[in-house]
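Practice problem: predict the structure.
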Amino acid sequence: MARMQNIVLIDDSGPRLLCNGRLEAQPWEPQMRKAVNFIESPQKSHCREGNELSGFPAVPLLPQIRRIHSECGPATCLLGLALLATDNWMFWFQPRLVLFLDLMRYLTLAAQRVCHVSSQSARPTTTTSSISLLVHFLQKAATMRTFTLATMLASGTSALTIPLLGSLTGFKDIPVLSLSQGGKAQCYSGLIAVPVTTTGNTQLNLNLPNNQSSVTDIFTQYLTSTSTLVQTLTGPDATVSGTFNIHAKLCFPLLSLPPLVTPPTVQFLIHGIGFDKGYWDFAPGYSQVDAAAAAGYATFTYDRLGVGLSDHPDAVQVVQSPLEVDIAHALIQMLRKGNLLGTKFGKVAIGGHSFGSIQSVGIASRYPDDVDAVMLTGFSLSSASFGLTFAAFNAALANKNQAARFGALSNGYLVTGSPQSNQMAFFRNPNYDANLFNADDNNKQTFTFGEFFTLGKVVAPATSFKGPVDVVNGQNDFIFCQGDCLNPSDQNAPVTGALFPAAGGKCSTFMLPGAGHALNLHYGASQMFAHMNNFLKSNGL
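Answer:
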């Protein structure tokens, strides 16, 4: 078991120091008792709460503590106070409050595991002291090699790494805990190994271009009025198998306790081309993750294959739209089965942006039972301006255009060529913050030749999907509406009937005035987030 830092506890016997698993007496600082006074009350069937330090928000009594208390007895009120200490100096001030609460959640889970040990072990009783209960847990966990507590409380960072129990299943390594951009959600992120096989990829008769001139020529040939390039390059269906590392982030409303107390519905959000999972949690006020958490939803975002911190395999034959649909399917199944953080979600609402919406249609079509609702953003039935879009992209070799970030990638990975390319395709001036635009351009992400030539292969009517559908666009979306989603009529309106003929529930649409294709990053994005969350609530999700 890895070396533990000190944990200070308050229980009915007074403050103690648990140092590397040994219980020792520890003098108590009076100001710490003022900071949080969460002491067991033997006369009551629950812990009482208090907070005497001026300027601190009230610490709520977590319902799950009551639940565990009723199951295991008052001894579990040791969860009243658990603070990490290094060299006996307490990291306790208002910006760290969430860290304290997170430790409470983990220790609550620890107690819950102890209360449900195998029948060969003695179940703790109400006469068991609080400290003894935690020591009992540590001893059990050390035997099972399932408990490690390590923190990084470096000044200036809100992220820490806390591995605890077997409940952190699904991630390859210890997930990193952080807050969402607006502080409304607690998020756990890391790599997930996803074994997957698809039979839907296409054998492309395309060699990697040798240089930028060859890249430009491929797109020039594609856009030529008499082009037969697609027919020339398209071969038979191909099977691709492998285990791919996908970097993902699972977020819960602040003060949730996975897996004991979590929302029943998770929003499964897929980003589009040129972005990574950060598109859904870009900045305070521009975060669907924050808005969803405030509305009581969990969110799952991830870097698609070939993007961000996920694997970057063969950019022509492997990173294609069909394989990405099957990766999304595998991830959704993990969420439904409780394979991530031990949290099982009964409802999954899929939400996509642009290529992520294309993926969402593909998932609902091929795996209709995967999702309970579909939210499409930056999407319409029209592909009339796709050629203009890819001309605007002025696609550039990622390893040359962004050598510091993507220098190790093959010539099959591309990025938009310039800030002007990003503006024309994704933004509508002046309806966005220039700082957000610059941040997005500095973090622009890759796409592949394999994706480009298989973009629409997964799109087919989802005839067996019977849930509700929401279609959302920016009024001035260039990619799917050539700059005007109300011309010649509302481009949102026909989507559900054409692609989801069996859709039920309360379907809806929304148009964000003045927004371009990257509508999450435009003024008024919060209106769209509110609409999407209200759509789910109106359908009982």
